[in-house]
Design brief:
Arc Repressor Mutant, subunit A; about 300 residues; 2 domains; transcription; DNA-binding; Tscrpt_reg_AraC-type_HTH; alpha+beta; Transcriptional regulator, AraC family
Amino acid sequence: MNIVKYDMNKKILQKLHKLIPDDGYYNTYINELKLYKMSERTSMYNVMFENWILFTFQGKKEMKLNQVSLEYTNENYLVASSTLPIECETFASKEKPFFGMVISFDLNIIYQLLDEISIEEPKNKKQSSIGTFSDDITEEIEDILYRIIKIADKKEDSEILGKSLIKELLYRVLKGKNSHFLHKLLNKSSNEAKISRSLKLIHNDFGKSFSIEDLAKKEEMSVASFHNHFKKITAYTPYQYIKKIRLNKAENLISQKNISVNEAAVTVGYETASQFSKEFKKYFGYPPKEAKASLKEYSL
């Protein structure tokens, strides 16, 4: 890290120490932005990424998307441009807590930026077809992050400047050398756009019984092509993906909404609570009745 980036990271950390004193997720006056702090290392756990850009300013995260390994630190950021079930491990301590930022984004803003502004698709030959990627934090991006954090606890500033800062950040992300997947989404007939629409459908109607044939037909794809591109983008087969979406949704319902195990099982599409409990325990490592929020949620 060069001196300029080191100084900026130090300024950001000083601000975060004041903003978020305790471990937990912090809602801000910018609707798209959450900040969070963790003071203990975690073992690998399951989490759902949903059209997010993730930054860390201290500590690091290691993730697995099926057999694909990902990592981000204060040198790079992670973009999840699809709804993806990911295994995640956080490295942190009381002396050096993990400070992170999650920015959710609307794909419509991505479409608008790509359509209105002349942003060329990166020419990186090592491009990946997977629906998530990491990229380097530039000085321009770090400057935007600092400006975002400076106003995150100020209501009026956030209302006036928040959306323009988020848009500026997305612009810089689109200019990143690994942002091929986001560019391909602009072509509504691309395989990436087709699978992205299918993921959104599954995500929104997770309790529905889906037919792979119907999903493929809806996007005018053969079953074989749909299956192949689906796995390239998500690292899972359609059925594996649907199961993980349902289990993650159920975990959220039980831990965050205090819904009973039986009700959660029915809501996410299981016919029996016993089958649901068996698959839940296999996936998370504990029975559904023991599900609880990992971090408290606060507001700045």
